[in-house]
Amino acid sequence: MAREVDYIEIVAQASGQQELQKGGGIVDELMKRAKNAGVSVDDLAEKMKKLGKKAENTQPYNAFIGKMKQIAGITAVGMGIKKSISMFTAFDDVARRVQGTTGANAETMELLRYQAKELGRTTSWSASEAAEAQFEFAKAGFSNNEILAATPGILDTATAAQMGLAEATEITAGALRMFGLDASKSTQVGDMLTKTASSTTTDVRDLAESLKYSGNGAKQFGLSLEQTLGILGQLGNLSLKGSQAGTALQAVFSTLQNSKKQEMLMNIGVQLTEDGSYRNILDIIEDIKDKTKGMEKAQRESFISQVFQEQGSQAMNRLLDTKEELDKLINEVQSSSGFASQLAKILGAGVGGAFKNLTSATEGLGISFGQYLAPAIIDVINIATQLISAGTGFIDWLNSGSYVANALTFTISALTAGF
Asked: pTM, whole model, 2 decimals?
């Protein structure tokens, strides 16, 4: 009786090779013939071995060995292919998560993939990182068109803010949604965030944390994003930043919606609403400053404390004392167009930026090469999986010293190393 370890070798040598090649499944064909013939695999193997001796030098057999040598030879060029496959796999996995989240069709996914690869080719960020940014926008509920519009603008923001692309995307997406801005405004949002951070003692993370607590209230009281960032930046200059600044500012908004507190403010002549809506908080602050300017400092602070309580008064007192600086900062933020790009270019002009550009370009090449190889690699891995699934005897065959077995063993080992 033939051993199971001979099966693959037998099939590789026997007549009818073209039929096997067309079918693409060596073990499947062998098992099918056995089943159709109603004989045991061992019996079939014995019969095929006899045929194999006559067909050892046939063209199909040589072609099979030639193909294995070709694959093994390419792999042996170095672990470059392994690296390329890994790069493409990482990129492809993220792209598929984008597709799974947005439900994009094949045509739209090609556009998203192209954009990510193009951004990887032309910027210091890799294609995989650009795809991660797309995924963050997708998680935030952005449509495919919005993702395409928003993603390019986020790259300079991440560089200028010196943070990861996914984190910068999450922050920008939150700001866009919070203030009802179009996705195409992602570049402007990045400019405003980075300008505020560069002009104050805050950073982009501080500002993002503050916006989590106060952004919705700011919009309700008529503030634009740039005005809100100006306020948060000014509070940061006065040692109130991050969640503390956001909580304190939200306390101000909550106070202004309290009927008893409203009455206290209106009693000194502060106007809170206009045409049925709350006035812009900056106008209310200006009004409060004007109506309390006749008070002694201690009296004014006591009044502010009674109205806004401990938490809200932390923000209000700081804003009242530095209204001129606040107005100047808001103007700077409003005039920040192109700031993130400019800062990103400066930061990327050094040695670190050069290395990052090289890494990004290298990954782009690796992804392209990996994408080109992917169909063939998938076929090889699937065949290997089928063969291994045939039984433990296959492992013995791989160790048998057979030329075909050696070629396949080398190919599988090289392709799967590191997985």
From this structure: 0.66
